[in-house]
């Protein structure tokens, strides 16, 4: 079986891709859906003065608004109908994951299989509408508070803004689900990926223009590009890294047949929390900068001091960012992976870790191993996220990609490529099965 799989993998080339009609349809559907998303980021909200908003945005883009603008592909900067992006849905999904560990009824739904998952997804959609409505109303009030941004302030503007922005978020949520079911890759992740990558060409042109003007040396730009390649290779290596726990299953007798015991592995990812810790950490740290940006000239000296201390490149920002990333790595890992449930499932199916008693001792051992590898994963995420900050403060290079966006782009690319390879393998298997049937009929 292994040699057959290796032979199939070696045959994955452009000729195999050209024959996979179903895969090509999925890729074209995905590209079309992402094109619709990109077009939506250029449709502005009604009742906005673009010039006045651009001036207000430039004053506040150093805060959380700048990060949301990058994730939304520039929709916030243009105040488009997709300005909220897909972030309310992600926030609602994370809240539901947290709730399933606290509320017994939701925890039972999670264990009910496909039917329970559908109910939880429906609750997540309701939560998305609520979060998006609150955020949209806050944006509408904030726009009215800015000078000359709204042409006709009032409840009609607020209502139309809420309906437009909530509708845009719900459309993106639906579009992401369609990409997942009819396209390639995870639709929600691909929408965020498209938003981040959309601004990369402009950022590269700006850096090269600074090099042409002499603001940045050619050697520094080359060094940054080489470092980016090294960091991407590190991310790929660490995201694929696993700690495999050996699982043994005893001999089983079914009827008159005796089945030999077999072995398998329980894979524990080095980075179980994914990109959630840096997203949470950066969002919380950018809130003071955002408030400070909107409160300029108000006379609050303490707010000005906190905003300056938590600015990019400042020591307090570095320390707080690293501490929050480490905290959320452990917190979110504890939420998404339950060693006790894993140990109970192993015990039900007769599996055990050699040298470890099934049940509670197995759960303790899994928790011990998971804690140790989470330490390594937290250090890795912290280094990747802080490295751009150190380089910005030391060299002054205006990096477009931060650690969080780089993690998202590399992770989504790896996941999409693996799904394409899976579809190609399935196509190869179908071809082999058809050939085997034809040869059997001829005989």
Structure report:
The chain has 443 residues and is mainly alpha-helical. It is 72% helix and 5% strand. It contains 18 helices and four strands. The strands form two sheets. Strands 1-4 form a two-stranded antiparallel sheet. Strand 2 and strand 3 form a beta hairpin. Helix 9 crosses helix 10 and helix 15 packs antiparallel against helix 17. The longest helix has 40 residues.
Pick out its properties:
two-stranded antiparallel ribbon, 443 residues, disordered N terminus, mainly alpha, 5% strand
Question: How are the elements arranged and paired?
Answer:
Blueprint: H1 2-10, H2 14-19, H3 21-40, H4 50-60, H5 64-71, H6 87-100, H7 104-111, H8 114-145, H9 155-182, H10 187-198, H11 200-213, H12 218-240, E1 242-248, E2 252-254, E3 257-259, E4 263-269, H13 276-294, H14 301-309, H15 315-336, H16 339-348, H17 360-395, H18 403-442
Antiparallel strand pairs: 1-4, 2-3
Helix pairs in contact: 3-9, 3-10, 6-8, 7-8, 8-9, 9-10, 10-18, 12-17, 12-18, 13-14, 13-15, 15-17, 16-17
